[in-house]
Amino acid sequence: MRLSDMTRGEVPGFALVRVDAADLLHGAVRHEPELEGWIRPWRFSADQMRAMGSCQAWHPGLYRQMGRATAGVCLEFTTDSSEVAVEVRLDGEPVGTREVLRYVDARGEARMHDGLSCEVDGRPLGVRVPATGDAQVTFTLDDPSAAPAEGIMQLPGMGDTHHVRVWLPCLRGCTLRSVVGNGSFVEPVKKRRDLLVLGDSIAQGFVVDDPALAWPTLLAAELGLDVVNQGVGGQVFQPGTLYGLAPTIDPAVIVVALGANYRYEPCRERLVTRDVRSYLEQVARLWEDVPTWVATPLWHDEDAWPSHRMSCFEVVPRLIREQASRFGGMRVVDGAGLLDHDAALMADGFEHPGPAGSRQVARRLGLVMEQASTPQQELRARAKALLAKAPRRTFPLAECLRRGIGTVICARPGCVALREPGGMQMVWATDPELARDVACALMRDSVTLCLEPSLADDLGRWLGLPAKEPVHLAIYRKKARPRPDAAHPVRPLGEADLSAVRQRMTHPEYQTDAQTLELLRAGDVLGAFAGDELVGFVGEQTEGSMGMLEVFEDFRRHGWALALESAKICQVLDRGQTPWCEVWPDNVASVRLQRRLGLTVLPATEACFLAQSRGSEPQDAR
Question: What's the pLDDT score for residue 11?
Fold first, then answer.
């Protein structure tokens, strides 16, 4: 007999296990009792609901409706049941919600956009709603692929223990009574600390079609937290809407994702600035020790739905950055990098991400948080481990890590990226999706050394760096040192030589005066002398490669380049490091010099520089 039949018939009490839904709630700020044992979960305090419905709100009626929705709230439990039924009654769809969904469905076939979504042992079962006139939704928990034989189910209470999450609707409210199983137990899962998300309709879950796929829910799962989703359709920075919340939750991380709705109505910069400041000030005061991420609005298609001509939305991202920077515990996230600028990712074609877009936002926010909150020492250790068996072309990355140079941007299986002190970036990736997320969320449109040939064109497009310049990597692998040439004396230059070096550099724009001065002070710029006359020099780039090789015109083809680089190789070896450099393929003389000195020269097909335009690469290559 199926559970759906058992719950509607005369079944002995020992055949079923029943638990109050209130005991299984996660992500709810509170719940209120109703008649006959039913309860209503809330994700807002009573004070918050009054504030959202007050005359100070932009749209009090809309906010009251949206505030009843159970976005982010779930029932979580373990059970040995093969089936469970959730007693639930769904509210009607808010008027404001119907308007958005009507627009979405006008672009294609009408479909179900909300309901109860069940996840069993990490396996999604999809979205369901009660049948007409019914007040329960039933889920079969056992994995059909694990059944003893096709069509055969485990006896109730005789199968595995399942970890179950049932996500409640994100676009409407509901009431609950109990969870019924056909096993021997249904036990609550201990609550975790919270990810608190303060947002608008995009955070609430418009229009991902599954409450489990709203980006706050996905991000909380990645962080190992429960989610308190306070996304409200149509909401803006409304001071006073956080009253009564702090005593009811335990946030480990806070994300503020507001601002998009200013583009729909007339608004004035002065008033918006005041509200943003007051709202963030309240967040900082209530949770001064909690890491808080403040995101500027996501990308939207302005052509598909233009902003109101009297809106100040154009300056809103700047206002958010400026006001968030006033509080030490807040970090600003560039929302434009959290979602690809692609209307195909939008469920409504212009603003609300669909399931794929919501996943992208969650993944990229997770990357941003990980990079900022993980100690560099740990990221460097991860990156070293990932590069241990990587192709030889990843040597520049590995050598930077060995020398302690730069900041690790990402160290995950499938992508290692680093930014060196001069601003240049290096990246090696085998996972295109992860590489795209890293490029858009964590990297800048500055010169980048791409160490994965198959990724170069895409990486250049993601970063807005259309110029691609292949480059040879030359690495000194020999144990023997080059022999010094007494006929070509070379010695370190000092601070007093700054002017002479800067004036004779072919590309002084690739290095600042301060960077050159630092190299001179460290003795890392070597000069060649004919008598007392400086005839050339060689130095290093900020990522540690040999560079800056200059032999003055009257002294070329007399062995000075060989002497300079030989001395530089010896200096690097004396520090216990591996000498290396980059060489442009058309610089045949330099390629020949590297091979003469015993450097292994990798094909120019293995690495390339990406830049805004040709000639804007740093002087790493010769």
Answer: 47
Domain boundary among 323, 342, 371: 371
Confidence of residue 149 (pLDDT cuts 50, 70, 90): low
Residue 545: which CATH number?
Answer: 3.40.630.30
Q: What is the pLDDT of residues 165-177, one digit of tens each?
A: 999 999 999 999 9
Angle at CA of residue 334, ends 437 and 240, nearest 5°: 130
Distances in Å between the Cα of 359 and the Cα atoms of 271, 345, 525 are 33, 10, 49
Instruction: Report d(CA 487, CA 66) in Å as an integer.
Output: 83
Answering whether pTM is above 0.85, one says yes
93 by Cβ neighbours in 10 Å (0-12 / 13-18 / 19+) ranks as: middle
What is the percent of the chain with per-residue pLDDT over 70, rounded to a whole number? 93
* Residues sharing a CB contact under 8 Å with residue 503, sequence separation 6 or more, in sequence order: none
Spatial CA neighbour of 434 closest among 402, 409, 468: 409
Please tell me the distance from the alpha carbon of residue 559 to that of residue 565, in angstroms, as a whole number: 10
Query: Which of 167, 172, 116, 111 lies closest to 354 in space, CA to CA?
Result: 111
**Structurally, how many domains does the chain consist of?**
3
Average pLDDT, the chain: 92
Distance in angstroms (rounded) separating the CA atoms of residues 435 and 441? 10
The pLDDT-based confidence of 6 (bands split at 50, 70, 90) is low
SS3 223: helix
- The residue behind tokens 């409706």 is 65
**340 phi, psi to nearest 5 deg:** -60, 145
Quickly tell me which residue has 């000498």 as its tokens: 579
9: CB partners within 8 A, 6+ apart: none
Q: Give the whole-angstrom CA distance, residue 29 versus residue 222.
A: 21
Q: How many CB atoms lie within 10 A of CB 603?
A: 12
Kindly state whether residue 620 falls inside one of the protein's structural domains.
no
Secondary element (H or E) of residue 25 = strand 25-26
pLDDT digits (tens, 9 = 90+) for 95-145: 888 877 887 777 666 677 899 999 999 999 999 999 877 899 999 999 877
Calculate mean pLDDT across residues 518-525: 94
Question: Do 347 and 382 belong to one domain?
Answer: no
The per-residue DSSP string of 410-447 comes to EEETTEEEEE-TTS-EEEEES-HHHHHHHHHHH--SS-
- Enumerate the H helices of 114-255 as residue ranges: 201-204, 215-223
- Pick from 24, 51, 32, 360: nearest CA to 232: 51
Domain range for 381: 375-471
The tokens of 299 are what? 């990308």
Q: Residue 58 contacts by C-beta under 8 Å, 6 or more apart in sequence?
A: 234, 235, 236, 238, 261, 265
Question: Do the Cβ atoms of 373 and 366 come closer than 8 Å?
Answer: no
Q: Is residue 582 part of a domain?
A: no
Place of tokens 């609901």: 49
Q: Do 314 and 338 fall into the same domain?
A: yes
Q: Which long-range contacts does 130-138 make (Cβ < 8 Å, 24+ apart)?
A: 130/88, 130/89, 130/90, 135/87, 135/88, 135/89, 136/4, 136/7, 136/85, 136/86, 136/87, 136/88, 136/180, 137/85, 137/86, 137/88, 138/2, 138/3, 138/4, 138/83, 138/84, 138/85, 138/86
Looking at residue 309, the DSSP 8-state letter turns out to be T
Nearest CA to 581 out of 453, 383, 395 is that of 395
